[in-house]
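Homework help board

Subject: predicted structure for assignment chain

Our instructor gave us this sequence and asked us to write out the predicted structure in token form, then describe one feature. I got the tokens but I'm not sure how to describe them. Can anyone check?
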Amino acid sequence: QLISIRNPDGNVMAEYRAPMLTADKAQFFVTAGLRRKEHRWGPGTYTATYQVIHNGAEVLRKVFDIAVAQ
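My token output:
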């Protein structure tokens, strides 16, 4: 499992690769984050991408966008 967050310029701000699961799980919580030095997020659209990789192949991808106004 991989979750990444990209800033409006398309650069990766934060990324987390979860260790391989040792057993089947009905649910599994994954987060990625970054301590911000500024008090506010800059304006633009930020993108979070969640991927599940199995045997080297992507089997699931979800993309979430959030727009931050000035």
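Reply (TA_rk): Your tokens look well-formed. For the description, you could write something like this. The two ends are 33 Å apart (CA to CA). That's the kind of observation they're looking for.
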